[in-house]
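Ticket #4471: structure export looks truncated?
Reporter: QA, pipeline team
Priority: medium

Steps to reproduce: submit the single chain below to the structure queue and open the exported record.
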Amino acid sequence: MEAQAYRGTCLENVAVHYDVVLISGAEPTWEKDFLVDYEVADPTDQAALSAAGRALAERHRLAGVMTLTEWYLVPVARLARQLDLPTTAPEALQGCRNKHTSRTLFARHGVPSAASVSVRTEHEAHVAARRIGFPVVLKPAAHAASMGVIRVDTAGELPAAYAVAAKTAGQGVESTQVLVEEYLDGPEMSVECVTYRGQSTVVAVTRKTVGCAPYFEELAHAVDADDPLRATVTPAALAALDALGVTDGVSHVELRVVDGRARLIEVNARIAGDMISHLVHLATGVDLARAAADIACGRTPDLTPTRRQAAAIRFLYPAYSGTLTARRITKPVGGVERVRFQRQPGDKLLLPQDGGDLFTARIGYLITTGPTTAIVQARAQEAYRALDVQVTPAEQTVPAIGESGA
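Actual output as written to the record:
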């Protein structure tokens, strides 16, 4: 139910305005409430995807094609081309998916980024790290959700870190290489952008909280309609989209602000995950899912803000890997928009340091709203304390979060 927990609002919002048909790798379940038709096909298999698209086109007059999933960007763009529907060029999306290509294009177009070297062996990684200077970041050239991304502070840490990054990179489609990159020391954020016929607009800025060092697990996000850093990060985000050739769609541009200057991490040419599009909707009134659907259908998106407030999401992680034994809300808290548990008692939880990732570690999330970022974060902390979530490690039961500790 991961997709429903994090993408359900997107599908629901689009279905309000459009008749939706779906191509899915498995028989739809919860999605059926929002669909008029569907085909089952592997979206990463271009031939299967194209056949499913043609089958739907024979039954319906298709106006546009879009995806919310990082791994499907290039195949779906090719499908849009085959059906003569609007899309950013598949070649441009390949540049977004391959971070080495992105860095090359950033350098060519003068977009402030990070020093980056593509490597294929541990020895090459050592050479690159010494050249760049520790600390460095190792990451797969083509993956998503910060999986396989790890900070390395010393040469002694590099062999184990390279093994982690290389294992994840080996699952890549566009590239199996590992990147060794300069560590950008500054606050991390994303810029939520909308591009229509080559003109890009910044809709919102998302402040990120990352943890589980040396990994970069995303623990919380906050969107404020009046974020003071918007003017600082906007030029770099728009320049990055131009450099990569993104012409149509919603993008999630990640960067860090170092010494007052925006430095690009990567461009994800799709709606942000982690419920960020919902935060943007709560904070500004702009519906990014509707905008993406409009653009896919060749229509001008409505980006007029109708709200000026803040919204935040906090993810629920255990203090250690183990088995979830209990999770409940102990009391109501003001300003809470929703609490969602995505794990059931008895489920195994595996943190990144134990070989897991966000899909194996997260228990759920809570979302709060309010007039400012400070207020929504305070409400999130209060709501967090109102949870009773317990995890059993190998030999003893120790409370994980909320009332019972951590």
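Status: closed, not a bug. The export was complete when the record was re-opened. Leaving a note from the reviewer for reference: Confidence is low (pLDDT under 50) at residues 396-406.
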